[in-house]
Write a structure and sequence with these properties.
Elements lengths: L8 H5 L7 E8 L3 H10 L4 E6 L8 E8 L2 E8 L5 H9 L2 E9 L2 H10 L4 E10 L2 E9 L5 E6 L12 E2 L11 E10 L5 H10 L4 E6 L10 E8 L6 E8 L6 H9 L3 E9 L2 H10 L10 H4 L1 H5 L6 H7 L2 E5 L2 E7 L10 E8 L9 H14 L4
Parallel strand pairs: 1-4, 5-8, 10-13, 14-17
Antiparallel strand pairs: 1-5, 2-3, 2-9, 3-4, 6-7, 7-8, 10-14, 11-12, 12-13, 15-16, 16-17
The structure holds fe (ii) ion.
Length: 375
């Protein structure tokens, strides 16, 4: 994995809750069959696995999509009852599960519960000819969960019950590699509750904090704390709305998602210019910033390897910290509700999250929010 995060054995030895990385992200959606085509055609994922009635599963369909280290699961209910249908009715399409890859799911689950986590599923062993998979789950903000997935005894495609798919539709990849970070939006006054949850239960540390003065525009504000696990491979910024002259973008999310949930998933690429050009040409919509943003880039971030032309043409943002710089861009929401969106990020040394872009970015979000009549 190409990554800028430290992964030394020493760090892992002292890890209070060892996590190897993101195992998968599962979305509960209204029509997984069509969503799968969107992620394949527009984002360049490959469909590799499936479960549903044809494989003996009666209540749902799930599509397993991969691209490099990314593993996305899209699941829809097959009827009006049950937790998937209820989740979709209430939240619309959204992230249900940010699953952690762990060495020992039973031990991880027991530790998490002992430290105060609420169970979303006791350790369960499933098996097929490829071995045994152990999965448990704990709840986090809203209806979102973290599955704890132990793969050491399993050598199959994904998990028992999924069958491999072969399809003539094999879209070219877009250079998306792995989950860089996942951002949660929680209610006013709840940011520190969830910061404490990740600290106390999962041994994460608070690596960055942004107060409402750092993240405010003329109209609205938010506060954010970034939590990181021991080896740095899992990074969760947690946002809460702050008071501004108008409605915070976080409030708009909370209204339309009907509660806390995942606001954006940031995906790493090694070549953001070609990735974004490809995504745009396939129909992915991005937020844009005024051209004046680029007039000030060099004075703000100094020299960068990339020509300004393509960055300006595509709307890619640049920021610098003590360790290097990063390039990033944000999609518009990927479903009708103004809830989940994606960030595409290329890190060139920087380990931060683009604080220098917050103002320009949030003004872009607010222009969209105003067009929806929600500002
Ligand atoms: Fe982000």
């Amino acid at each position: 994995m190409t990554s800028t995060v430290p992964t030394s054995a020493t760090a892992e030895t002292h890890d209070a809750f060892p996590i190897n990385g993101t195992d998968y992200v599962e979305f509960w959606v209204g029509n997984a069959k069509q969503s799968a085509v969107f992620y394949r055609a527009a984002f360049g994922f490959q469909l590799v696995g499936y479960q549903g009635p044809e494989t003996g599963i009666r209540d749902r369909c799930s599509y397993l999509l991969v691209q490099d280290k990314l593993r996305f699961v899209l699941t829809s209910p097959l009827g009006p009852d049950g937790e998937i249908a209820e989740h979709v009715r209430r939240h619309g399409d959204g992230v249900r599960d940010i699953a952690f890859w762990v060495d020992d799911a039973r031990a991880a689950y027991a530790t998490a519960i002992e430290r105060g986590a609420i169970s979303a599923g006791e350790p369960t062993v499933t098996s097929d000819a490829d071995g045994e998979l152990v999965v448990a789950a704990i709840r986090t903000y809203g209806d979102t969960i973290h599955s704890l997935v132990e793969r050491r005894g399993y050598h199959g495609l994904f998990r028992p019950g999924y069958e491999a798919v072969s399809t003539p539709f094999v879209p070219r990849g877009t250079g998306l590699m792995y989950v860089d970070h996942c951002v949660g939006n929680v209610e006013l006054g709840k940011m520190n509750t969830w910061v404490k949850f990740y600290e106390d239960v999962l041994g994460f540390t608070n690596i960055l904090t942004f107060d409402d003065k750092a993240i405010s525009t003329e109209y609205s504000a938010l506060m954010s704390k970034v939590m990181s696990n021991g080896n740095g491979r899992i990074k969760f910024p947690i946002n809460e709305p702050a008071k501004g002259r108008k409605k915070s973008q976080i409030d708009e999310y909370l209204d339309f998602y009907h509660g806390p949930g995942v606001q954006h998933v940031a995906i790493a690429t090694n070549d953001i210019i070609s990735t974004v050009r490809e995504l745009r040409s396939r129909g992915v919509e991005f937020l844009t910033v005024p051209s004046a943003y680029y007039d000030a880039v060099h004075s703000r971030v100094g020299d960068i390897d990339e020509d300004l032309g393509p960055l300006r043409e595509l709307g890619i943002l640049v920021d610098r910290d003590d360790e290097g710089y990063l390039l990033q861009i944000f999609t518009k929401p990927v479903q009708d509700r103004p809830t989940l969106f994606y960030e595409i990020i290329q890190r060139k040394g920087a380990k931060s999250f683009g604080a220098g872009n917050f103002k320009a970015l949030f003004e872009a979000i607010e222009r969209e929010q105003a067009r929806r009549g929600n500002l």
